[in-house]
Design goal:
The chain is an alpha+beta fold. It contains two helices and five strands. A five-stranded mixed beta sheet has the order 2-1-5-3-4, with helices on one face. It is globular, with a radius of gyration of 13 Å. The model has no long low-confidence stretch (mean pLDDT 91).
Length: 78
């Protein structure tokens, strides 16, 4: 049996495999947000408000917030 951890994405609790990454958590929470993350139209912050990459590993109790960027055109920052 795979060990699971509980993490929170936008205040929603999720049970994920212990080897899950930030991108895995966002995909489990909302596939549309996951696509926005991959395209750069959104980013993820940790519980302290620090931006984290999609490949970052998670630990039990991780708190993530997905932020959709306001600008989506050529002026948007990468």
């Amino acid at each position: 049996m795979t060990e699971t951890i509980r993490v929170f994405v936008n205040a929603t609790g999720l049970e994920l495999p212990s080897e899950a990454t930030v991108a895995d958590a966002v995909a489990a929470y909302d596939p549309a947000l996951s696509a926005s993350l991959e395209s750069g139209a959104a980013y993820v912050t940790d519980g302290r408000g620090i931006e984290v990459g999609g490949e970052s590993p998670l630990t039990a109790g991780s708190i993530l917030r997905v932020v959709v960027r306001a600008r989506r055109g050529a002026d948007a920052e990468p």
